[in-house]
Amino acid sequence: METFFTQCNLLNMQGQPDLTPLDKIVGENVKRIRTARNIKQHEFAEAIGCTQSHLSLLESGRRAWKNKLIWDASKALEVDPSELFGGMPVAVEDRPIVKAIIDRMGVYSALEKKS
């Protein structure tokens, strides 16, 4: 599955998406919202279709978030996907990238409504 970062050519020498500050911020926001709602990590992992160990890596910013997981996390938490990007200081040159990520979440919403 492609991540947004592979689409933007943010790949390291092994062809894997480099971790970015965005991955850490999304992970922190997911964890903050999840724990505020008293949702256990293993329950949330099951709800979004990953393992608890993978979710732990995502929440700690040690794994890159895939578009579909961001979408599934926002649905499971009942928040707009853009809330998961909150708190991110965005440099002017990075704003198109963040906007494209949020726009991409709209594609998942449209596809889901058609189903």
Number of domains: 1
The rough form would be described as globular
State Rg: 14 Å
Distance between the amino and carboxyl termini? 20 Å
Q: Which sequence of SSEs, written as H and E, runs from N to C?
A: HHHHHH
* CATH architecture designation: Orthogonal Bundle
Under CATH, the topology can be stated as 434 Repressor (Amino-terminal Domain)
Helix amount, in percent? Answer: 55-70%
| Poorly predicted residue ranges | 1-14
- Overall pLDDT metric: 76
How much of the sequence is in beta strands?
under 5%
Q: What is the CATH domain class?
A: Mainly Alpha
Give your account of this protein's structure.
This protein has 115 residues and is mainly alpha-helical. It has a single domain, classed as 434 Repressor (Amino-terminal Domain) (Orthogonal Bundle), CATH 1.10.260. Helix content is 58%, strand content 0%. The protein contains six helices and no strands. It has helices at 4-7, 21-36, 41-48, 52-59, 67-77, 95-114. The two termini are 20 Å apart.
